Amino acid sequence: MTFTVDGVDRTAVVVVPSDTTKPAPIVFMFHGHGGSGHNIQRKLRIEDTWPDAVVVYPDGLVGHKGITDPEGTLPGWQTTPSEAGDRDLHFFDTMLSSIQATLPIDADRVFTMGHSNGSQMASLVLNQRPDEIAATANLSAAPNALLATDPVRSMFFAMGTTDPIVPIAHQKAAIAPAEQLLGVDPATATTSGDMTTVNAAPPSNIELQYVIYDGGHEPPANITSLVVAFFQRHTLSGG
After folding, report:
1. Residue 117: band (very low, low, confident or very high) from pLDDT cuts 50, 70, 90
2. pLDDT digit string, tens, across residues 36-63
3. Omega into 203 within 30° of 0, i.e. cis?
4. How many domains does the chain have?
5. Containing domain of residue 150, as a range?
């Protein structure tokens, strides 16, 4: 689909459920620096695991300087408020409102997800659009500089122990401030394989879940199913 944002045509791969008569959750998946919506869609195939959801894979623009692209010649995303005139936040606003105007979207189940630089964009949307987002998933990402000011929403992290772009120690640095923000007690954490889950005290449904996997910057093959299961447990009104 093409969306006109501040006079610029922006594009995204949008996957729609076969049944468009009932309100659907919607997932916005932001690709990493230098990627594209089409490429990340081919890798993750969120719609295969969650066929009832609308899944949006937007395309970034050149201009943002990345770790491996100091001149900003490859597509990427803004990571701070007001950067590049908030062009990507406006893109999100336009996509969401346009899709809501044509499809029955469940406003209680709007999710953002991102890989690397796209993870920073997913977190920025949460921070700047707190009344829209039910939960977030961050893959292979540096800690979000705005984390301390985020609204309290359930969060999912995935981190590779041999990531050559964002070192694992840097990624792990997001865990403690997320625990503090969400009000979860790390002493109550439960671990299953490489996944750790920390829940807030009842009756809150707030949850921090993170996966530390043996691998690099690309998330493992099972990450889509883990994130979908996580999203399916959360709503904007219920945490």
Report:
1. very high
2. 999 999 999 999 999 999 999 999 999 9
3. yes
4. 1
5. 2-232
